[in-house]
């Protein structure tokens, strides 16, 4: 019975340490989320590129299909 009690004590001690560590981690991450934006001017995020190639890709696909058909015709005959 003493071994079972020691196991339970060890289990609760381990779970307590993990809980404290995770709570501390969440606290530090929340503080960092408030602190880091103050220094965003040093290394700003790059602006996302505008996607203007949507119509180009459809036209490019048509051109690639035409090239493939021409290659098949040239090879066959």
Could you explain the architecture of this structure?
There is one protein chain. The longest helix is centred in the N-terminal third of the chain and has 34 residues. The chain has two helices and no strands. The termini are far apart. It has 77 residues and is an all-alpha fold. It has one domain.
What layout of secondary structure does this protein have?
Elements: H1 2-35, H2 54-76
Keywords for this entry:
77 residues; mainly alpha; 2 helices; 74% helix
Quick recap:
With 77 residues, the chain is mainly α.
Q: Tell me the domain tally.
A: 1
Shape: elongated
Radius of gyration in whole Å, from Cα? 31 Å
What is the residue-mean pLDDT, rounded to a whole number? 88
């Amino acid at each position: 019975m003493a071994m079972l009690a020691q196991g339970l004590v060890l289990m609760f001690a381990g779970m307590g340490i993990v809980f404290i560590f995770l709570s501390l981690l969440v606290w530090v991450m929340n503080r960092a989320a408030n602190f880091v934006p103050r220094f965003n001017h040093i290394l700003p995020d790059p602006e996302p590129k505008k996607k203007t190639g949507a119509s180009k890709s459809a036209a490019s696909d048509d051109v690639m299909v035409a090239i493939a058909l021409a290659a098949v015709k040239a090879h066959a005959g």
